């Protein structure tokens, strides 16, 4: 324990470094192990595949191609799977109920995260049932299995077999359907890509309803190769579509790959990315390498400082094995203490970055890493003994300065600068994300989604009542929730543009307050819009039968039907239509040829706006025309006084409950909506920022130790120079310059490495920052300033000493 009681600064630096490295490696290893383990606990995981559309098709009743980005499959494609592909042993379908509520006694809840399925679900997937009989589940209608969490939420106990709850859809007129609890499953493992709270029994005919979408899982025969089945599926559809139809292209994805490789808009959970794994692994590796370099350097410094004592031991009969055992004893104390500190730090890291995995359950991994650290750092502690011959001749082998450590010091700062550049890039891209989407103050905007159709029909009344509260500033509505794009893509007619069936455009729907709420300005035209079509008119016009729709419209009061359609183009649409100057589009006549031919009247372009960027930054903005409609507006937007958030939410919920008592309000702040989309990127930024700070800290500690050792060995040189007339400032500048040159060398090496890594990370964004020269220059300046600050105090103390003292130094 001598090394600790003397509070040796080299030992303290080693302990701090190894502790940080252990915490970083343990945290990163736990995260990576968790991410790579998704869905591997299912016994048949290697044979289970989810079927998705890779390229869209247009088959049967479809009016337009499938949305290629969805994780669920149009049920129109499912029926042939049962009859024509013998290589498929089992099919499990999961269908999400839309706008359902669950009533337990007199209390009503939203039915979120729940799916219809049949008994095959429990034979394919290995989820633990803690109450009920797995083999007997879902052979009868109106049965339900709920999670342990849901059982405690609704009933306060898991002993709920036989209890009843009522499920009601918004169009149910009979009070809903009573379901009986037949099973309670344990809460899903954190490494499952699906985490449903409720599973509802359904028959196969209902699940295969051609008007729905289902998450479709296939169990393949062990002898069937997935690529061959893909070819068979695609060949089947190419041969079995009508002349005017488009065959889809299917893609099979293994169950174990879904979490990291599938990023569709309606995934069953929040998926991770391979890129995040690489970022976390790279950050931890940088810290580990810097620590190993530091440890080797400082162990060498310790050996050099104690060289005479070691030579005396050799004179007294000690051999290399004796010296090695002594060194191992010292290093074991340092490593053990560092691991204890690092274990505590790892939990702090996990709390800071907020990854969703349980680090405390990684006992085996922890033990393995402890053993690895002891072996690796123990071996490193012996390297100086074996790379330097220690003889009994005390006059042999003069002590060396720090020039031998130049390469390792340059390596340390190279790694630190790379980490620093990447941290700046990630932070800059995240800043771009924050300012990219509409809404200057996203913390004051609330989105309300998944509400009953009645809410759309009474939107004006809800808006009127809610705005009576001064804390609620503005209310608007739109077609899609934040982070998504409209699904409607149809042909159009426009003055000055040749009509073509292949000339299509996306349409979005908003109300007239939308642009005011987001403070969006027009590039051309006027966004002070008049009220659009009424809900009554739209209800009459929405019929796909043109004659029936016209008859319905003619029966309306003129005050409901005499309006002028107004259209707004985004900048991408303006360019697509050939307008180099947005002003040229204003006043042009436009007609959208929707499936309901009377629903969108011919109107005029009244404004052009910049691209909304309402969806995400991973895909380019679509050409989009925006109309003032109501029936499609399934998202309400509410702007509140952010200084009175609690009262605003309370009044908003009370107003909602008064108008729609059977449908609890589902809301989310706009900032949270976008955070979910970029959760992986935010966590990458947090992790890399932490690792960057730690890598710089470790480099500072290493430079401090080496500069201290170097200056100590230059004491005589300093004394001679001062005796010859050199000033303290000249001596300081010379010593500092030496380290600045080394850091500059590191910057030259680090810049191309950092550029390649940063450019690769940014490739996943359609809209990204430029890798400007100032990012690299800023990182280099920081590194040089750190070097100057680190060595300045020591050089100042050495330079101002009396030369008489320096010349006496041994």
UniProtKB/TrEMBL annotation:
<dbReference type="Pfam" id="PF02687">
    <property type="entry name" value="FtsX"/>
</dbReference>
<feature type="transmembrane region" description="Helical">
    <location>
        <begin position="739"/>
        <end position="759"/>
    </location>
</feature>
<dbReference type="Pfam" id="PF12704">
    <property type="entry name" value="MacB_PCD"/>
</dbReference>
<keyword id="KW-1133">Transmembrane helix</keyword>
<feature type="transmembrane region" description="Helical">
    <location>
        <begin position="333"/>
        <end position="353"/>
    </location>
</feature>
<keyword id="KW-0472">Membrane</keyword>
<dbReference type="InterPro" id="IPR050250">
    <property type="entry name" value="Macrolide_Exporter_MacB"/>
</dbReference>
<feature type="transmembrane region" description="Helical">
    <location>
        <begin position="365"/>
        <end position="385"/>
    </location>
</feature>
<dbReference type="GO" id="GO:0022857">
    <property type="term" value="F:transmembrane transporter activity"/>
</dbReference>
<feature type="transmembrane region" description="Helical">
    <location>
        <begin position="12"/>
        <end position="32"/>
    </location>
</feature>
<dbReference type="GO" id="GO:0005886">
    <property type="term" value="C:plasma membrane"/>
</dbReference>
<feature type="transmembrane region" description="Helical">
    <location>
        <begin position="277"/>
        <end position="296"/>
    </location>
</feature>
<feature type="transmembrane region" description="Helical">
    <location>
        <begin position="771"/>
        <end position="793"/>
    </location>
</feature>
<protein>
    <submittedName>
        <fullName>ABC-type antimicrobial peptide transport system permease subunit</fullName>
    </submittedName>
</protein>
<feature type="transmembrane region" description="Helical">
    <location>
        <begin position="687"/>
        <end position="706"/>
    </location>
</feature>
<keyword id="KW-1003">Cell membrane</keyword>
<feature type="transmembrane region" description="Helical">
    <location>
        <begin position="405"/>
        <end position="426"/>
    </location>
</feature>
<dbReference type="InterPro" id="IPR003838">
    <property type="entry name" value="ABC3_permease_C"/>
</dbReference>
<keyword id="KW-0812">Transmembrane</keyword>
<feature type="domain" description="MacB-like periplasmic core">
    <location>
        <begin position="12"/>
        <end position="230"/>
    </location>
</feature>
<dbReference type="InterPro" id="IPR025857">
    <property type="entry name" value="MacB_PCD"/>
</dbReference>
<feature type="domain" description="ABC3 transporter permease C-terminal">
    <location>
        <begin position="690"/>
        <end position="803"/>
    </location>
</feature>
């Amino acid at each position: 324990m001598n090394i600790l009681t003397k509070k040796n600064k080299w030992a303290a630096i080693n302990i701090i470094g190894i502790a940080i490295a252990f915490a970083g490696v343990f945290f990163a290893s736990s995260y990576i192990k968790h991410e790579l383990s998704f869905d591997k606990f299912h016994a048949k995981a290697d044979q289970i595949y989810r079927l998705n559309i890779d390229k869209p098709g247009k088959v049967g009743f479809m009016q337009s191609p499938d949305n290629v980005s969805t994780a669920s499959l149009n049920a129109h494609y499912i029926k042939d799977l049962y009859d024509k592909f013998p290589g498929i042993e089992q099919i499990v379908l999961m269908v999400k109920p839309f706008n359902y509520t669950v009533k337990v006694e007199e209390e009503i809840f939203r039915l979120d995260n729940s799916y219809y399925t049949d008994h095959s679900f429990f034979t394919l997937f290995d989820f633990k049932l803690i109450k009920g009989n797995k083999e007997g589940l879902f052979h009868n209608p109106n049965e339900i299995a709920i999670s342990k969490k849901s059982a405690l939420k609704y009933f306060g106990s898991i002993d709920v077999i036989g209890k009843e709850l009522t499920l009601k859809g918004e169009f149910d007129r009979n009070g809903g359907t009573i379901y009986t609890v037949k099973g309670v499953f344990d809460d899903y493992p954190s490494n499952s890509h699906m985490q449903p709270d409720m599973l509802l029994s359904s028959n196969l005919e209902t699940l295969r309803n051609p008007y729905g979408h289902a998450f479709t899982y296939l169990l393949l025969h062990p002898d069937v190769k997935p690529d061959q089945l893909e070819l068979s599926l695609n060949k089947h559809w190419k041969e079995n579509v009508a002349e005017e139809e488009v065959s889809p292209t299917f893609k099979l994805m293994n169950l174990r790959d879904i979490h990291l490789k599938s990023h569709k808009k309606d995934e069953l959970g929040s998926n991770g990315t391979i890129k995040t794994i690489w970022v976390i692994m790279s950050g931890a590796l940088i810290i580990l390498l810097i620590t190993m370099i530091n440890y080797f350097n400082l162990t060498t410094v310790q050996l050099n400082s104690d060289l005479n004592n070691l030579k005396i031991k050799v004179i007294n009969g000690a051999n290399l094995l004796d010296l090695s055992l002594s060194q191992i004893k010292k290093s074991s104390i340092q490593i053990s203490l560092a691991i204890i500190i690092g274990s505590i730090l790892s939990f702090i890291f996990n709390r800071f970055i907020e990854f969703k995995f349980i680090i405390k359950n990684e006992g085996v991994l922890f033990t393995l890493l402890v053993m690895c650290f002891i072996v690796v750092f123990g071996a490193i502690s012996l390297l100086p003994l074996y790379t330097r011959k220690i003889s009994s001749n005390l006059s042999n082998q003069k002590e060396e300065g720090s020039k031998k450590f130049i390469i390792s010091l340059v390596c340390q700062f190279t790694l630190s600068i790379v980490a620093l550049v990447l941290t700046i890039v990630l932070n800059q891209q995240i800043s771009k994300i924050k300012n990219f989407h509409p809404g200057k103050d996203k913390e004051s905007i609330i989105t309300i989604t998944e509400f009953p159709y009645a809410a759309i029909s009474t939107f004006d009344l809800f808006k009127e009542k809610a705005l009576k509260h001064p804390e609620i500033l503005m209310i608007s509505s739109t077609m899609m929730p934040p982070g998504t794009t409209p699904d409607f893509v149809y042909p159009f007619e426009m003055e000055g543009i040749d009509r073509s069936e292949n000339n299509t455009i996306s349409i979005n729907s908003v109300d007239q307050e939308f642009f005011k709420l987001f403070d969006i300005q027009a590039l051309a035209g006027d966004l002070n819009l008049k009220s659009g079509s009424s809900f009554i008119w739209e209800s009459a016009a929405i019929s796909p039968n043109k004659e029936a729709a016209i008859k319905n419209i003619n029966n309306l009061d003129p005050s409901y039907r005499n309006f002028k359609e107004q259209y707004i183009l985004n900048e991408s649409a303006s360019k697509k239509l050939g307008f180099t100057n947005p002003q040229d589009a204003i006043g042009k006549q436009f007609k959208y040829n929707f499936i309901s031919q009377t629903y969108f009247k011919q109107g005029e372009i009244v404004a052009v706006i910049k691209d909304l960027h309402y969806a995400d930054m991973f895909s380019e903005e679509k050409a989009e025309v925006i109309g003032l409609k109501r029936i499609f507006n399934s998202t309400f937007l509410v702007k509140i006084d952010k200084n009175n958030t609690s009262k605003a939410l309370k009044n908003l919920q009370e107003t909602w409950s008064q108008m729609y008592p059977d449908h609890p309000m589902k809301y989310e702040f706009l900032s949270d909506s976008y955070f979910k989309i970029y959760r992986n990127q935010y966590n990458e930024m947090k992790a890399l920022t932490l690792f960057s700070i730690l890598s710089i800290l470790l480099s500072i500690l290493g430079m401090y130790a080496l500069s201290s050792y170097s200056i100590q060995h230059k004491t005589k040189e300093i004394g001679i120079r001062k005796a010859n007339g050199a000033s303290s400032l000249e001596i300081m500048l010379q010593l500092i310059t030496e380290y600045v040159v080394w850091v500059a060398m590191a910057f030259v090496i680090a810049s191309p490495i950092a550029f390649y890594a940063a450019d690769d990370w940014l490739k996943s964004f359609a809209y990204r920052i430029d890798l400007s020269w100032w990012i690299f220059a800023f990182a280099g300046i920081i590194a040089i300033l750190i070097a100057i600050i680190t060595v300045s105090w020591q050089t100042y103390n050495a330079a101002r000493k009396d030369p008489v003292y320096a010349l006496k130094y041994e």
